[in-house]
Amino acid sequence: MAASVVSYNDEEELNAETESEASSIYQGSVISTVPDRHGFLGGSQYSPERKQSIPPDVILRRERKWIQMLNNWNLFMTTNYHKVRERCRKGIPPSVRLRAWLNLCGGQLLMNENSNLYEELIKRPGDPKYIEDIKKDLHRQFPHHEMFVENAPGQQELFQVLKAYSILNSKVGYCQAQAPIAAFLLMHMPAVQAFWCLVAICDKYLIGYYSQGMETLLRDGDILFALLKRISPVAYRHLKKQKMEPILYMTEWFLCVYTRTLPWESILRIWDMFLCEGVKVIFKVGLILLKGSLGRTSLTKCCPTTYETLQVLRNPSQHIMEEEVLVYQLTNYYILYRVFSNSRLYYILSVTFLMLQIQRLNLSEEDFEYEHQRQMLKRKAAEKETANRTD
Fold first, then answer.
1. What is the C-alpha to C-alpha distance for residues 205 and 208, in angstroms, rounded to an integer?
2. How far is CA 304 from CA 239, 250, 301, 343, in A?
3. Tell me: the pLDDT tens digits for 178-193?
4. pTM of the predicted protein model
5. In this structure, what are the phi and psi dihedrals at residue 27, rounded to the nearest 5 degrees?
6. Residues 293-322: pLDDT tens digits?
7. Are residues 155 and 219 in the same domain?
8. Total structural domains in the chain?
9. Where is the composition biased (Acidic residues) (predicted)?
10. Can you tell me the distance from the alpha carbon of 208 to that of 216, in angstroms, rounded to the nearest whole number?
């Protein structure tokens, strides 16, 4: 199949294999009539089919273990959480991912406790302001995915899920960053399950992220920057020298949980861990992206101004490789691949490399808690000082 994005100038260079497949040009991208394994017809997330990198017998064995675990979920979560976490880190088999995500985030419990509530919510009119904002954003969510192309049924389901949440939690209402998360969930489960997963994520995992003023997000940006000083002093000094506030580069990462940032295989693996271990996974991924983008002097020299730095941080996908292009399956060690693209040399991380980096990042629960408390005290002191000046 064709590469993910091909410009108008590159159209004539498409090979015979690509030309043999029905395709069209839309906004500078080649759009295939045959979706990839994730449902994408084009765009940056489109990827050709790949050979199965994990042996079928291993997949089958993992599926059986997950089915056994899901059938005894409460027992595993209360007595053997470490086993659940270990299996999430290895990657949840696609065939059981829906059930696993529902149970991990608590969406299944919410759905059981609120039977038929979603159906009632979608029948209500909703706040006109939120309804208008939701409608404006529908076409922006993964427009190259078969569920969300123009007039596809996925857009109506997305509208209903977002409207239902804005009614259920009227204090938060609707925030633009909720849309890609809801769309991402709809790609993996029916609307009612996607709704309750969205409720769990917004109200339990990302509390305060979507409120006006985004105080929680600002605080977490300060925490991320403080942790970076320990993980990558080079990247920390570079960002501090350029006086670049974390909110400039981490907002989309955190608010959308990387659904608009990373290759699809990476997103799925990160979400397997995120729904199991919580928001600290978002921090760890952010730290790895910062370190990978700016963690060496040779990298910071390429970013003399804030413009270049932001370009690197807002487009970190060039540093991450999807599993499909791996020649060898990675296991217990780091491998850094170098590939040439358009005469430029990119250092690209594989999905497995990213997962290993996340798991081996030397940050404990106590480190996160300590930095959280420290930043809370700093913000309170700053607010008190501002109040005193006003008086």
1. 9
2. 11, 20, 6, 22
3. 999 999 999 999 999 9
4. 0.80
5. 50, 45
6. 899 999 899 999 999 999 989 886 454 434
7. no
8. 4
9. 9-20
10. 5
